[in-house]
Write a structure and sequence with these properties.
The chain is built from 2 helices and 28 strands. Helices cover about 5% and strands about 40% of the residues. The chain has a single domain (about 55-540), classed as Porin (Beta Barrel), CATH 2.40.160.
């Protein structure tokens, strides 16, 4: 009996040991996996970042665009320095009629709810490669359009200007020259928006008004709304397809105020802007003028001082209506803008206009915020004050949905650049004819300074057969039809006519050889037309 009880107890002990060993070998239970959850607070495409209460959306697009008689992503040839090398010559060797651009975009949107409202950060940028007017695709770039933070009514970073109302981008593939909208590239700013309820809001914004300006006598152009001041006393200030700016440094941000209403029927807004217009220095350009100590004629010299700074300004108003005439999805919009000394608020065409219709026919125009001169008289270097340029424009569009997959839009706009009588006299004073004789009535002659076209713009010595006016204007009209075989795929074509009402319309004695174009004895400076076409295919993902 004792032997049997010992066997049973031993067996039980062995089972306990074996069971304990097996239990020790079992895996430890893992913590539950936190799967990605849909965030429905901000619309489609948002997800909660695991372990946080932050919602994330990542979007992208890939675009291929082919352009006829345009370049730089849709700018008609010759309108605002499309291609500096060809400068709008449109001949068989200097200008290819086809251009291409491939662009890849990425967006990152992060949002978190706080006791003060939504905390948001947003980024948009990407890569692009272009072959402009026959050039090799060597201008691959990384671009950066947006990068801002929003919190409790504040917005800071690279933004779309709060001055802007309507954009033509949703209705056209052309990079139009009739709108000052900054949506394409953005600008730097910091703004506060107050919400009053029922869709009404007011914004005050401090924005980039010249941080990218190129300084004295640069051959480049400033930021989209940076100062563009022409010192007509500098040789070659205006030239064939070129313009140089004699800007002062950036001293203050542009101040923007906007009132807006957003409703189911659409939206409407009025905006105003103040813009710093600062110039560089008067220079000792012409021999015989008194020179400040240590200054050499024709060079920059701080001893001559410069014109006093001025404030330019701009105002705009516009609206967009939804479901026009009860047609679902149809939209109609209009915007009007007016400025003095703030041309970039009316148009993005901040480069020179140069369009050739034939070897003996050309049209020109120059865009500035202001002009000034080194001299206020023939014998005095005193210099003139800044003469602000007036610019105004109107844009409009209508888009109709034939069905869920087909839509057609009609878009267009008109811009005008006007120089006051003093500014006109300053410009004309640097257009001497033969023997230094003024070609425009009442214009003094300050020596044989190189005229803008590189040639005397005149009929015969001492007489004029041109308009004697640097004022000019242009308009664009176009229509785009787009097919969406899938909601994320755009395929379409846009056809546009751009018309230039030239500055200095009339005849010139001669026009120097320009690329493949031979010099002409009597050239016509007259209005010009460019017909452009754009084909685009674009794949969107969570735009």
């Amino acid at each position: 009996m004792k032997i049997m009880r010992g066997i049973l107890l031993g067996s039980a002990a062995s089972l306990v040991v074996v069971a304990g060993a097996q239990a020790a070998d079992l895996p430890v239970k893992a913590k539950p996996v936190e799967y990605v959850r849909v965030c429905s607070l901000y619309g489609a495409g948002f997800w909660y970042v695991p372990g946080t209460d932050t919602c994330l959306k990542i979007g992208s697009y890939i675009r291929e665009q082919v352009e006829y008689n345009a370049g730089n992503g849709g700018v008609p040839i010759g309108f605002g320095a499309t291609d500096a090398a060809a400068a709008g010559r449109m001949d068989r060797t200097d200008e290819s009629q086809l251009s291409m651009r491939t662009r890849v975009g990425l967006t990152v949107d992060l949002r978190t709810q706080t006791e003060y409202g939504t905390l948001r950060s947003y980024f948009e940028g990407g890569f692009q490669a272009s072959a402009n007017n026959g050039s090799a695709p060597t201008n691959d770039i990384v671009y950066f359009d947006r990068g801002f933070i929003q919190f409790a009514g504040l917005t800071a970073g690279r933004i779309r200007s709060y001055f802007d109302i309507n954009s033509l981008a949703p209705y056209s593939y052309a990079n139009n020259r009739v709108s000052g909208d900054t949506g394409a590239l953005g600008l730097w700013g910091i703004a506060y928006t107050a919400q009053f309820g029922n869709g009404f809001s007011a914004t005050i914004s401090f924005e980039d008004g010249g941080s990218s300006s190129q300084g004295t006598a640069s051959n480049g152009q400033s930021s989209s709304r940076g100062a563009m001041v022409s010192n007509m006393g500098l040789a070659g200030e205006w030239g064939l397809g070129t313009i140089s700016y004699d800007n002062g440094g950036w001293k203050m941000p542009d101040v923007i105020g906007a009132l807006r209403v957003d409703q189911s029927w659409g939206y409407a807004q009025v905006s105003a802007a103040l813009h710093d217009v600062s110039a560089g220095y008067y220079t000792a350009l012409n021999t015989g003028n008194p020179a400040a100590p240590g200054c050499v004629a024709g060079t920059l010299c701080t001893g001559f001082g410069g014109p006093s700074d001025k404030l330019g300004w701009a105002v705009t108003g516009g609206f967009t209506l939804n479901d026009v005439l009860g047609l679902k999805g149809d939209q109609f919009g209009i915007q009007v803008a007016y400025s003095q000394g703030a041309t970039g608020y009316v148009t993005r065409a901040t480069g020179p206009f140069q369009v050739y219709g034939s070897n003996t026919s050309a049209g020109f125009g120059w865009v500035t915020d202001a002009v000034f001169d080194n001299q206020s008289s023939i014998t005095n270097l005193g210099g003139t004050s800044l003469q602000l340029t007036t610019a105004w424009g109107i844009t409009g569009f209508y888009q109709h949905f034939w069905n869920a997959k087909w839509r057609t839009s009609i878009w267009g706009g008109y811009n005008e650049i006007d120089y006051n009588s003093t500014a006109t006299q300053i410009v004309n004073s640097h257009f001497p004819g033969a023997g230094g004789v003024a070609i425009c009535p009442g214009a003094p002659v300050f020596g044989a300074v190189q005229p803008p076209l590189g040639i005397p713009v005149q009929g015969a010595p001492g007489s004029s057969s041109n308009s004697c006016s640097p004022d000019f204007s242009w308009y664009e009209v176009g229509t785009r039809t787009q097919w969406n075989p899938h909601p994320d795929l755009d395929i379409g074509i846009d056809v546009a006519l751009t018309h230039l009402n030239t500055a200095y319309a009339g005849n010139s004695v001669a026009l120097a050889a320009n690329g493949a174009r031979a010099a002409c004895a009597v050239c016509s400076i007259e209005d010009q037309n460019v017909v452009s076409a754009f084909f685009r295919i674009q794949r969107n993902f969570l735009p």
